[in-house]
Design goal:
Layout (H helix, E strand, L loop, with lengths): L1 H4 L7 E9 L2 H12 L2 H8 L5 H11 L9 E4 L2 E5 L2 E2 L4 H8 L3 E7 L5 E8 L3 H8 L4
Parallel strand pairs: 1-5
Antiparallel strand pairs: 1-6, 2-3, 2-5, 3-4
Helix pairs in contact: 2-4
Amino acid sequence: IQIIRDGEGTTKLIEVTIKNVPDYKMGRKLSMGILNSNLVKTAFFGEDANWGRIITAMGYSCKDFIPEKVDIFLGNLQVMKNGVGLVFDEVKAKEILSHKEIKVLIDLKLGSEEITAWGSDLSYQYVTINSSYRS
């Protein structure tokens, strides 16, 4: 986790927990699909509670889940229930996403396994640092 925090231009640590997943392999595909999505990373940097980017990243990374069963929480704020986006307090969402550490909980309702993975946001500073030199 410290390696992620120390990353060039990182402003937020993102923790994704997927519960009630059938197996580790599926949980890993989904969690890494979310954490590696540039659209998800930039949404977190911009403090935008865009659940659509999360469910889309899930769909790109694994076809074996049922979107209509998915619940998504950002911190303690539920933003999706049974695959449907909820009306939620945008001010509270922005406050949750302003923290240096953000927890995302996804309930697949398909099994009994749970996996947690970590990643970071994608900031202006990251782009600046990594576009200004050759590797």
